Amino acid sequence: MPQSMSQASLPAFVINLEALSGILDKAEAFATARKIDPAALLHSRLSPDMFDLTRQVQVATDQARRGAARLAGVEAPSYEDKETTIAQLKERIAKTVAFLKTLDKSKIDASAEREIVFPLGPEKKGHMKGDDYLNHFVLPNFYFHCTAAYAILRHGGVEIGKRDFMGTIPLTMT
Q1: What is d(CA 33, CA 91) in angstroms, rounded to the nearest whole number?
Q2: Do 148 and 1 form a contact (C-beta atoms < 8 A)?
Q3: CA-based nearest residue to 98, from 31, 19, 17, 171
Q4: Are the CB atoms for 129 and 117 separated by under 8 Å?
Q5: What is the pTM of this model?
Q6: Cα distance between residue 16 and residue 141, in whole Å
Q7: Is 174 inside a domain boundary?
Q8: How many domains would you assign to the chain?
Q9: What are the Cα distances from residue 140, in Å, to 2, 109, 118?
Q10: Containing domain of residue 131, as a range?
Q11: Can you give the CATH number for the domain in which 18 is found?
Q12: Do the domain assignments include residue 55?
């Protein structure tokens, strides 16, 4: 049986957002142990022209929340981008996960052939079929920002590894 749109999206968002929250826990512990102001980590970036850690987390949650909402045909809750602490970023992640768990999977599954219209900057709109929107826009953007957040923290010295990035995946071992 082919994978449904909800199976391809919701678990990926939830697992990766929870992993992101976990690496933020490790970042906070790292800052405390080293007597570093956590704000130094939050404002870190990999390159001058890239978003800092705070913005990477905000955009990752935006991609999951807005992308899933568009697929479900509902309005996404709006979040102000005002987080200044690790605790506030973790709260934003938790709110996003809670929202994702309210979405009707059958509506997401029915979106594969439906046209999704989404903003591309302040004045342009993108148009894609739901399956293309999920697979070629939302998921790549979501993973990019989760990966960038992970890389910023790893580059900053936080002791995290691949298992931290992957989170708790549904795995059966024999």
Answers
A1: 22
A2: no
A3: 17
A4: no
A5: 0.94
A6: 13
A7: no
A8: 1
A9: 20, 19, 15
A10: 5-166
A11: 1.20.120.450
A12: yes
Q: What is the DSSP string of the chain?
A: -PPPHHHHHHHHHHHHHHHHHHHHHHHHHHHHHHT--HHHHHT--SSTTS--HHHHHHHHHHHHHHHHHHHHTSPPPP--S---SHHHHHHHHHHHHHHHTTS-HHHHHTTSSSEEEEESSSS-EEEEEHHHHIIIIIHHHHHHHHHHHHHHHHHTT----HHHHH-S------
Angle, CA of 106, 112 and 113, to the nearest 5°: 125
Is 172 contained in some domain? no
> What are the pLDDT tens digits along the chain (174 aa)?
578 999 999 999 999 999 999 999 999 999 999 999 999 999 999 999 999 999 999 999 999 999 999 999 999 999 999 999 999 999 999 999 999 999 999 999 999 999 999 999 889 999 999 999 999 999 999 999 999 999 999 999 999 999 999 887 765 656
Total residues found in the chain within this entry: 174
Residue 171 lies in a domain: no
Q: How many CB atoms lie within 10 A of CB 163?
A: 11
Q: Taking phi first (over 0 means left), then psi (-120 to 50 degrees means alpha), and beta for anything else, what does residue 115 get?
A: beta
CA distance 149 to 142: 11
